[in-house]
């Protein structure tokens, strides 16, 4: 009985399924189409594009062959992304990227650009890219060059630029042979405008060729992208130069002057060192020189005469010293005895110059241009009576210190010293009275006194000493 009921149920189900089967199939297809239409209307398929920079990979396939590459085209690529609108709308440029595998270079040095997308979207979109990257190959070259530090700008007043140190001070350059071979120097330029204290800064090195032009190439790589530059800012001080003359010129010549250019220089250093320096002395030896010596003009290095820790600006490294040495000439002139004074006479004595109204020939030496129009009345001549008692003496003629001439010491003036018995003291320099009639030469006793006087005379600032 139960089996009968089961068969009846199955029959009913079968009849239900096969009844109007064609209509039912069309209804199912219509439902699917309707569902697809609804889905596409609500979340349609969209395509968008992104322009991205291409990253090269497996570059070691080229560098291992001692080659370098330069990208000719294909540094950027356009990537098309297709997918549901809901997905596409969530994408940004950072979700998409492109690579070029340099290990897959073709015979014409080209490689397809492969598009990529963030993993979470990988199975939800379709990617495509029609761009290719083309490169040129060149032999690799390496070179090591010392880094030069160049300063620009002006430091604060009262300061100067000291030592500039680059670290690292030597860089290795790697790149294409054509670019590397052009490089003559590597420089870092540091701005010191207004600087009043030492400082450090990281700077980008720049390559230059022999003509001072910047060398650029995508193949160039420095062993260090940045160079640390330490700049020492020093204090400055302006000091005078003193020329110290030593030795004597050739016989018959006289040293006149020394001119130094510049007369003052700027020195640099730590303030603790500079504060004790008031000037610099430069010794110059004139031994044996004449007016036509080859070294009357000299260039002298100043740094040799400065203490440790002190430096100079480049413009003060050398100074010019010009020496003036002139020939000495001899001239004979008449000097009236009455123009001669007597000095240092002891109290209680009086003196008179014998043959007061006569003249003596004196011999002087000096520079020719100064002796030409010499007027003896402008100079003070005298004899020294220091320590002398009564008697007649032949005393050496002297002249007050001057820079025009020197007096030869053979000229002598005869004087007579006597006790002053008057109430009024005689002027020690007074030579009034009639000339004595004594003989031209002193007696042996007087000569002895004269000799003792010459020995007892204290040195005076006269040229003949």
What would the keywords be for this entry?
45% strand; 465 residues; alpha+beta; rod-shaped; RNA Polymerase Alpha Subunit, Chain A, domain 2; disordered C terminus; six-stranded mixed sheet
In short:
The chain is of the alpha+beta class and 465 residues long.
Description:
The protein is an alpha+beta fold. The protein has four domains: 45-130, RNA Polymerase Alpha Subunit, Chain A, domain 2; 140-234, RNA Polymerase Alpha Subunit, Chain A, domain 2; 238-327, Beta Complex (RNA Polymerase Alpha Subunit, Chain A, domain 2), CATH 2.170.120.40; 329-456, RNA Polymerase Alpha Subunit, Chain A, domain 2 (Beta Complex), CATH 2.170.120. It is 15% helix and 45% strand. It has eight helices and 28 strands. The strands form five sheets. Strands 1, 2, 3, 4, 5, 6, 7, 9, 10, 12 and 13 form an eleven-stranded mixed sheet that branches. Strands 8, 11, 14, 16, 17 and 19 form a six-stranded mixed sheet that branches. It is rod-shaped and about 190 Å long. The relative contact order is 0.07. The model is unreliable at 425-465 (pLDDT under 50).
The structural domain count equals: 4
N→C terminal distance: 170 Å
Using only C-alpha atoms, the radius of gyration works out to 55 Å
Mean pLDDT metric: 84
The low-pLDDT segments are 425-465
**What is the CATH third-level topology name of the largest domain?**
RNA Polymerase Alpha Subunit, Chain A, domain 2
Task: List how many beta strands DSSP finds.
Answer: 28
* Beta-strand content bin: over 45%
Derived from helix and strand composition plus strand pairing, the structural class reads: alpha+beta
> How can the largest sheet be summarized?
11 strands, mixed
Instruction: Tell me what the CATH architecture of the largest domain is.
Output: Beta Complex
Multimeric state:
single chain
CATH class category of the largest domain: Mainly Beta
Number of helices: 8
Q: Specify the overall morphology.
A: rod-shaped
Fraction of residues in helices?
10-25%
């Amino acid at each position: 009985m139960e089996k009968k009921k089961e068969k009846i149920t199955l029959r009913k189900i079968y009849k239900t399924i096969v009844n109007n089967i064609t209509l039912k199939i069309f209804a199912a297809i219509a439902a699917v189409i309707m569902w697809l239409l609804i889905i596409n209307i609500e979340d349609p398929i969209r395509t968008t594009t992104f322009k991205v920079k291409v990253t090269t990979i497996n570059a070691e396939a080229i560098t291992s062959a001692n080659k370098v590459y330069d990208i000719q085209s294909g540094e950027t690529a356009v990537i098309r992304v297709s997918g549901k609108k809901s997905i596409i709308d969530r994408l940004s440029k950072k979700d998409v990227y492109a690579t070029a595998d340099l290990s897959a270079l073709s015979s014409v040095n080209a490689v397809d650009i492969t598009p990529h997308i963030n993993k979470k979207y990988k199975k939800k979109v379709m990617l495509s890219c029609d761009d290719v990257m083309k490169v040129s190959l060149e032999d690799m070259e390496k070179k090591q060059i010392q880094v030069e530090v160049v300063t620009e700008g002006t430091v604060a007043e009262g300061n100067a630029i000291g030592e500039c140190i680059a670290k690292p001070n030597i860089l290795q350059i790697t790149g294409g042979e054509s670019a590397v071979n052009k490089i003559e120097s590597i420089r870092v330029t540091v701005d010191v405008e207004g600087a009043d204290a030492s400082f450090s800064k990281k700077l980008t090195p720049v390559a230059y060729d022999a003509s001072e032009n910047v060398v650029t190439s995508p193949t160039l790589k420095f062993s260090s992208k940045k160079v640390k530059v330490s700049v020492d800012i020093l204090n400055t001080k302006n000091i005078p130069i003193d020329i110290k003359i030593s030795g004597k010129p050739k016989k018959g010549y006289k040293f006149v002057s020394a001119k130094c250019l510049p007369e003052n220089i700027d020195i640099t250093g730590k303030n603790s060192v500079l504060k004790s320096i008031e000037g610099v002395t430069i010794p110059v030896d004139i031994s044996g020189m004449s007016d036509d010596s080859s070294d009357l003009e000299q260039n002298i290095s100043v740094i040799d005469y400065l203490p440790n820790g002190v430096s100079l600006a480049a413009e003060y490294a050398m100074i010019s010293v010009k020496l003036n040495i002139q020939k000495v000439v001899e001239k004979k002139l008449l000097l009236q005895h009455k123009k001669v004074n007597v000095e240092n006479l002891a109290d209680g004595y009086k003196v008179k110059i014998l043959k007061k109204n006569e003249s003596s020939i004196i011999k002087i030496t000096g520079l020719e241009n100064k002796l030409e129009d010499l007027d003896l009345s402008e100079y003070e001549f005298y004899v020294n009576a220091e320590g002398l008692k009564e008697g007649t003496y032949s005393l050496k003629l002297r002249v007050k210190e001057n820079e025009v001439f020197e007096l030869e010491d053979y000229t002598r003036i005869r004087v007579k010293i006597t006790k002053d018995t008057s109430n009024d003291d005689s002027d020690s320099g007074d030579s009034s009275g009639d000339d004595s009639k004594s003989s031209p030469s002193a007696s042996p006793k007087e000569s002895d006194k004269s000799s003792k006087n010459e020995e007892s005379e204290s040195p005076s600032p006269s040229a003949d000493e």
